[in-house]
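Students often ask why we bother encoding 3D structure as a string. The short answer is that it lets us treat folding as translation between two languages. Here is a chain of 611 residues written in the first language.
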Amino acid sequence: MTNLIIGTIGHIDHGKTSLVKALSGFDGDSTTQEKQRGMTIDISFSHLKGDDKSITFVDVPGHEDLIKNMIAGAFSLDASMLVVSAVEGIKPQTVEHLQICKLLGITNILAVITKADLITDEERLDKSNEVKSFLEENNIQIIDILAVSIYDENSIKNLANILFGLNKSYKKDYKFFRYFIDRAFTIKGSGTVVTGTVLGGEVTKKDKLYICDIDKDIEIRAIQTQHSQNDSATLGTRVALNLANIDVSTLQRGQQIIKKGYMRGFKSIDVEIELLDNNMVLHDNIYQFFIGSSRCNVKVLELELNKKTNKRYATISSTSSIFAMYGDRFVLRNGSSTIGGGKVLNPIADPMKKAQKLELLELLSEKKYLESFMFLSKIHKKGFGLISSVQRFGLSHDESIEMLSDEQELFVDKTALVVYEYKIVDYLENIILNIYKKNPYALISAHLIHDRFKWASVYLADFVLNNMVAKNLLVFENGLYMQKDIKIENISNFIENKIYQNLHESYLTPEAPYNIYDMLDLDRKNGDKAFKNLTHNQKIKRLAHNYFITTENLIKAKELMKNIIKQDGYIDIHNFKTHLNVSRKYLISLLDYLDTLPDIKKLDNQRFLVK
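And here it is in the second language, the structure alphabet:
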């Protein structure tokens, strides 16, 4: 069944809540405070079911002090039902609500003139024309205009039929779960419950999700849509989620629940601002920033200080992290007035100069994604991750890879999801040549290059090494690359001999294995194999986690320790250090080895020879 989310917008006391009740039978003013004040203080919801469609009404408040709640409700709408009183007509909050809808990209608007029973047929026609003229003057496209009365059942049925005839607005599914909390409360017997709209992906019972604003992992205990328990909920569905293992006191409106790993938060993001009327954004001033159902104070840093048009680029700076996606709509307010809004262009803070940032934002504003990829590959000279392509561009990993597949100036690692400027191939080749220049006997693998230079993916390293083989610079043997003029009869024996020689020359203070690998330009896999063989063949002995010494050196150490006992009558950490001035970690490991010998007895911290 298709679910439409329709917001009722308009001025206070124009009949929004009463109209929704007439349509659905639900009184949105459900709290005691709302009943007492006679207005919708917060976002309230009700449902209307048809044969193949259901409608969720988001009844947002009309009072000017409660605009922030209206923005929270508008973020996920498929359409808006503009409610205008036949008696009062267009009023200030009517205009502001329409402006906010426009800023948030909501273009499906149905105009409904309420309280039609209070005016004549001729006055109804005049009022319809008035509303139509106003909307046309403000370039606001509407679905239809109709007059209704909550006391006229036929007009309500006609409105319901029109609403059921609406199509769901297209919302791209980014294939990961995303959801703004607009309410959080506790239900006896169930625990913590939140409400909101699924903005992407799917949620199912027992899903492990993440509240990014408070860095908290959660589990979904139960799911309810339209007063029914369900096993899952998908994009565009109003849903209540029962959360396990979290107290309601830690939750608040505006927090996002997401599938972990898809979004990062930043204290500054880049946006395109559209100003309303003759409003001005004052550079470096503080404003209220509304995105989804969240609100925070931000500093607006204009990137085009002398630009006079209503649209301009800016950086939004906050003291807390903003978790946003490319294309997210937002609203800016200054005190009690809406000054503008716009869309997020760059939700990820990239270090770059102002001129570079403006160039990137221009590309993103025009949805030139390929050019944006190429631009970023030049900024991030050592590659940037496609893992962020969903947040950066609203493109899935597969969409990004397909877009980049034929681009000759970019090197794309489809496995590690990294994009490089193609110049990186020559750059990495020079790095590898310098390794061989310092160590002609280096035995290199793609994993060694990746371990040493984290920015270089295994796929990139493998590509460059194979390219060097094709250019007759290297040869490939037993999974390793070496210079073509270097002759090694048995690579395994060669590696073992190199490691043994290094350990033997270090006497009792050898380096840890991974440091030896770096010195010898060996990858971990082949180095570990060599250590295992040397230990198995009893050429070296492991005394601690990363402490290996040759058997020959261990015999010398054993003789040294026994001579200290003969000279001093005992050995402990203190007199051992006077004879062998090395780190305690080596001394302790050697003393622990001494304790394993049958002719040694330990009392407290001293060792003695057994007679």
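Translate back mentally: The CA atoms of residues 477 and 491 lie 9 Å apart. Keep this in mind for the problem set.
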